[in-house]
Write a structure and sequence with these properties.
With 79 residues, the protein is mostly beta strands. It has strands at residues 27-35, 39-51, 54-58, 68-72, 76-78. Strands 4-3-2-1-5 form a 5-stranded antiparallel β-sheet, with no helix packed on it. The chain is globular, with a radius of gyration of 12 Å. It starts with 26 loop residues before the first strand and ends with a strand.
């Protein structure tokens, strides 16, 4: 997958590595992800953090090795 993932905690287990707090109520969204083998896919997700032009979404998909990915805000649409 070409999208970048970002850990939820720093190496000491303290909060988010960038200090961005999680939202109290995740937002239901569709996220555009570009997989190397499958190409572009729109997947249901939950936006849990955002900052500037980037959104951290929780995605449940067997093709991902992580549960959360940071994507550009233009790759996310609300339900």
């Amino acid at each position: 997958m070409r999208n970048v993932s970002w850990p939820f905690e720093d190496r000491d287990g303290n909060g988010h590595a960038r200090g961005i707090p999680s939202e109290s109520e995740p937002v239901r969204v569709m996220v555009w992800l570009d997989f190397e083998r499958d190409g572009v896919c729109w997947l249901p997700a939950r936006a849990v953090r955002w900052h500037g032009r980037h959104v951290c979404v929780a995605v449940a998909d067997a093709r991902l090795q992580v549960s959360y990915v940071w994507v550009d805000a233009t790759d996310v649409q609300r339900f």
